[in-house]
Amino acid sequence: MSFHHRAVPIVLAAVLIDSIGFGVILPVLPRLIVTLSHTSLDDAARIGGWMLVAFAVAQFFAGPVLGTLGDSIGRRPVLLFSMAAFAIDYALMAAAPTIGWLFVGRVVAGIAGAVYGPANAVLADVTPPEKRGATFGLMGAAFGIGFILGPAIGGLLASFGPRAPFLAAAVLAGLNALWILSLLPETIDPARRRPFRLRNAHVFAAFGPLFQAGKAKPLLLAAFLWQLAHMVYPATWAFFGEIALGWDERMIGWSLAVSGICMALVQSFVTGRAIAAWGEERTVVLGMLAGGLAFLGYCFARQTWMVFAIIPFAAFQGLAFPSITALLSRMTDPSRQGALQGGMSALSSTALILGPLILSQSLAFGAERGFQGGNFAVAALLALSALVLIEWKVVPRVHGAAAA
Description:
Elements: H1 7-25, H2 29-37, H3 41-73, H4 75-94, H5 99-112, H6 116-126, H7 132-157, H8 164-183, H9 203-212, H10 216-230, H11 232-245, H12 249-269, H13 271-300, H14 304-314, H15 320-330, H16 337-367, H17 374-403
Helix pairs in contact: 1-6, 1-7, 1-8, 2-3, 3-4, 3-5, 3-11, 3-16, 4-5, 4-6, 4-8, 6-16, 7-12, 7-13, 7-15, 9-16, 10-16, 10-17, 11-16, 12-14, 13-14, 13-15, 13-17, 16-17
């Protein structure tokens, strides 16, 4: 496709490189935690969950601040800071001598982890409202392509030791920062900037305009439940692969790479067409239905071929979040797009705080009792709750507003 603004491919490339850096460490993280903590794989899953909580708490406070800063000083410096901090984080984790240092690295990443908020704000700045759903879908495609390359590279680099992928991620994040510094233009018009006030740089201030619109409340709750369910992948996938299927680092990497291929195909070729044909609200329903059924499938999959048979179908869950983001973006005026995305980042961080605790504990609790799919059973229940809320509360209100 031809990009309508030169900032779009730069931001998508930045997200691509960042997702490669994130994906490259996933295959080795379980074994690194086991090595540094001298504990079992089941307990390592719990530690991995707490590590994501540390990331999320830091991001919860930093996300709205960075989003509001983007509305004040511009998107470009905020993105540049995020990428530089990620490079420092991965280098720190590569040298971590103890499990405590890994936690410090996750806190640094959490502070910088609001990169997707400013990136989404850039896309909202340069994209007409009616095209935002498809453009946000490209963001998901860039993330998916990163997962094609990142985990596969991480699985291969694991042969050089569990720290090698972290060094590779640090280099990629550094290159990402240079890319933004050299080529990304500023996209927010100076006339639309607003003064930075710390008292407004929190999740409640960011969502204030949305909560005043009654139809946004169920959409926000559904988005939260969906994100909570979706945490089953970053929080437990690598541990689930080893515990339930006996996978090694290379197989974990290839499973994530195949997931990335399928996700990128759906986001590139299906999301925009689905939104154009059925609208954002119906596309959300389709995405959540696919995700919920995939969670149930993984819950009972005990053979590798079963997992790889589910992965292509599961990719259609990628229809959900770009549609939610587009719906929320339409409810917000142009001068507050950065605050909106900062609020969405904080909402994601809240899900990251609760999700890993719930899902990693469910995996470990079930595994100790002979059932390895407890994490996906809980994820399926959360996805079903979000789907019911969308179908009963959001879709009728959107249709009613359109008819009026």
